[in-house]
Specification:
The protein is of the alpha/beta class. Helices cover 49% and strands 11% of the residues. The strands form 4 sheets. The chain has a 6-stranded parallel β-sheet. A 6-stranded parallel β-sheet has the order 11-16-15-12-14-13. A two-stranded parallel sheet has the order 4-5. Strand 6, helix 12 and strand 7 (259-263) form a beta-alpha-beta unit. Helix 18 packs antiparallel against helix 21 (475-488). The structure holds adenosine-5'-triphosphate and magnesium ion. Belongs to the helicase family. UvrD subfamily.
Amino acid sequence: MVRMSVEVASSCIVDDLDDEQREAVLAARGPVCVLAGAGTGKTRTITRRIAHLVASGHVAPGQVLAVTFTSRAAGEMRARLRSLDDGVGTASVQAMTFHAAARRQLAYFWPRVVGNTGWELLDTKFAVVAQAANRAALQASTDDVRDLAGEIEWAKGSLISPEAYPAAVAKAGRDIPFDAAKVAAVYTGYETLKARRDGTALLDFDDLLLHTAAAIENDAAVAQEFRDRYRCFVVDEYQDVTPLQQRVLDAWLGERDDLTVVGDANQTIYSFTGATPQYLLDFSRRFPDAAVVRLERDYRSTPQVVSLANRVIAAARGRMAGSKLHLVGQRDPGPAPSFTEHPDEVAEAAAVAKKIKRLIESGTAASEIAVLYRINAQSEVYEEALTEAGIPFQVRGGEGFFSRQEIRQSLVALQRAVDRDVDGSLPEIVRAVLEPLGLTAEPPPGTKARERWEALTALAELVDEEVAQRPSLDLNALLAELRQRADARHPPVVQGVTLASLHAAKGLEWDAVFLVGVADGTLPISHALAHGPDSEPVEEERRLLYVGITRARMHLALSWALARAPGGRQSRKPSRFLNGVAPQASGDNSPNKPRRAKGVTPRCRVCNAALTAPAAVVLRRCEGCPSDIDEDLLAELKDWRLRMSKEMSVPAYVVFTDNTLIAIAETLPGDNAALVAIPGIGARKLEQYGADVLALVKGRSGPAGDIGHRQTS
Ligand code: ATP
Ligand code: MG
């Protein structure tokens, strides 16, 4: 009987895989390496292999440790393991980042290896690095301190000591803000400052890994206990492993070889942190018995997207080029990728928002759409444009939803509720616990208070979602789930468009992807170009573009702007990586012309200055220019917006942003034409809300207008 059900489970696990994927999944216990391009099913293969090993009784779910490098990618693995569970138990497999895994293990083993001294995690090393730079008598700007912190991270990730740093940096040809001896002095000072705190050791993220490796390497009892607990290791995105992470992995493994790795050297995009595809490429040298499987069928993207990806990566040069793989698209044909040039970033963002709106209107879920950019600072203009277009979105970067003060307080308060054993349904209990922390029925005034409220609301909604998925969930299990997410820094998913950096998009996929800012100087980024056009940093930028392209299942739009701000000098060029792969990139080749034509700059209605900031464009005046606002009308508009947002169960800004309401209360539009002249109000909003808004405006200005009318007639 038992055997039967194992066989049934196993056949479900492999029957929708291709031959090569199946070979990797069913390979005997021991080392397995899957070397394959984007979208070929590496993550699918690895999660199926876990399910197979568990279902066939090789390991218990709790003995598997699956690791990767970004919290989102870890979240993706967990989601897939959960959906494969079906009674097999894969949902309880530990899947997390190297850092989260090390942090957990260290918390467990620390008292035994160190004794009474506690430790505290140094979330950001900026302040300590700044202090160390100061002591080394360096005049370091904020940017310099960041660079110094980056150097320390690279050195620690690469297992390079302060003493060895100058020679290593010369060999690696890194560009550093001060001479290498000075950077090494800051590195030494940083380590000293960290160690010198009374009673508690201060550990940065790399220390978590170092101490974990050391605890296992140096203490036979710790090693024994750890190795009894975990027997099977799986690494996704293995091309991104640093020497330090590899050392941890080696400590985990000991003399064993139950290790499955998957990766794509062409997606190496973390070299600047010390990551290297060498361990992936050398895997079969280290484990001569390893089963090595190559995949080349791309199941994710249309042949149109796959063809562009192939052309972009075919131009790669340097050490990774030898591992070039040619992807073969398996999906039905789809639309050709579009390449669009815009006069400035505001116009680019507005055009992207418009296309997104059209996709949503024609049935694509907002959560299946992403806007990807090179650096996080690019998100702002897209946040603004999407807000104006009334499209919900979520900025990814995973920067610590769970590190927010109110969320940490919430977890403490929920723990107290567990201890008190309170009654009620889970969503009710949670709302009651969060209320004193600021989860009021309506959003409070003030930016910080509102941010807090939004975070608490997101937490409450996350709980609703968990309960909907698992109705039997109790408070204790919920807390465990939240803690696991917190460890993995996995923010809750909202059903909105994703805004993310290319680095954060690794391993993920969406129906529609907008790659924005594909201009020389942004992608490749200027500091990479400073190393020379054929340098390895420029090659890494090319791989970033490849990663971005291969995130799209169907719709792919690449765009760039000639200037940063409206009216600015149009000196930019499309990315060099598009040469020869995109239709000769100048002018708009898409059917939708950019919304804001060249040279037509919006002007302030008070002082007539050209407006560039998105907020000012919506207000139609400089933010500093005097406002002729009707305060009572604004209050009425806000009340009305709150009613609407509740009725429609959407956040208030989806109805209208504050700036749009201010513009209405200032300009007192009398008819539809005057309403649509306000940025942020398009045809759909006019149809939905136009009558209400005009009635409110008329209600305020009405009596005066009527009297005036009577007098003149
Ligand atoms: P990346 O390099 O971007 O991480 P990957 O190699 O890990 O990509 P997956 O994310 O596992 O690829 O798979 C890409 C998509 O193709 C997923 O939606 C997956 O479900 C689908 N897929 C993979 N293999 C198959 C298959 N044999 N049949 C149908 N769909 C598949
Ligand atoms: Mg993957």
